[in-house]
Amino acid sequence: MAAVLLAATGCTTDSAAKDTDTGGPGKESPAMRGIALPSWYRTDYDSPAADRYLRGIRATGARWVTFTPTWYQKRRTDSGMHTTQETASDTSLRDIVRRAHALGLKVMIKPHIDLPGDADRAEIRPRDRAAWFTSYRRFITHYADLAADTGAEQFAVGTELAGVSGDSTDWRDVIKDVRDHYDGPLTYAANYDEYKKIRFWKDLDLIGIDAYWPLSDHPTADTGRLRRAWEPIRKELAAYAGHQGRRILFTEAGYVSQRGSTTAPYSWTVSGHTAPAEQAAAYRALLDSFTGRRWWVGVCWWMWDDWPDSGETPVRLAYTPHGKPAEEVLREKWGGG
Which Pfam family, just one, is annotated for this protein (predicted)? Predict the structure, then answer.
């Protein structure tokens, strides 16, 4: 199975270090070197900045880029989702996939459902679940068609929907519908505290995890300490991959350049104090800990630059590694020029 998945994902092979963890499927560990470029408005992917951003992503040594078209629901109990002015237009999404391919980048399309403001999509619990899944199938197959039409190399059937991801029968129906529209490898992006509750991994090609594990109880730029924090998590993941017979992709991982980012990687607002060294140490510790593990497919970092005039978090405090020591870590580890 691992050989099939290796070919299907088209991942670029780094040096194949031996995996000392037990239970992981596969013979060696090619790494999916990716960075997400999310959109927050319908014309973001049409922005004049798009080509510059894609070139910047490629210059780190990345070989993949993730795009995140997003639909919304007003309340967590709503029975459906819809486009808004914050949804990337289909035309812009098609165009940016074409631009990425022209630069030699592979593409994962990872559609999101969101709630207004700072509400967490994991809180979505529709009052009419049957109606919600009917609406969701329309949403996700729309993007599966777009992924097929544009030649996107990978597709995510959902992201961090913990309030409904326990409905395994409905998700198997979603996955079947998506496979009728798209032939490439499929994953689901489970949050780090959600993945063990998923019962449909064997219907997918890869286990996807948004890897926002807290690594420390206080701010630290000590790479060795952070590597040690990853050790029990890594062993647990290796065993889980073996049990499921699927390799693991970190569909997201990231750290704001704020003091304390390693204590709460999932937070945009840990503090108002810059800490680029802590961000860089976290990048290095993750790559040191997982690169070469045969059961680990790779990582798509969250995220590259915000679009001009759209960022709510100042760049110096944001998730982006661009222009910070974390970007130099990527260039060193991924061979960027």
Answer: GH113
